[in-house]
Write the structure tokens for this entry.
Amino acid sequence: MSVFKKLALKKTTKRRIGIICAALFCLWIGFVVYIGWAMRQPPEVFGHIMARMPMPAYFLFPFETMWSSARKGSLNVGDKAPDVPVKTLDDKEPMQLASLWADKPVVLVFGSYT
């Protein structure tokens, strides 16, 4: 092989590697954006998407950072809780949260306390 052919082959190989790397980076960015969108959806939608996520993907993407950002919310300490429907212990009719704090303070417990 001549020197010129070797240089041309080297240039072509570097260019192909560059194109492949750029394409993989674009796919990675697109996937990160998609997961970021999914994290801001209701739990049913997010769970449906994550159930089909292959395990190695958890190591390739910044899930913990994205999750913290997506679920941070906009309430600060001392803010009033939003008026949302809450489930009662007897599972009958849900009631509005605002109706509970009209007379007395309300404590919300999330998760298990046993």
User: Anything to note?
Assistant: The first helix runs from residue 3 to 39.
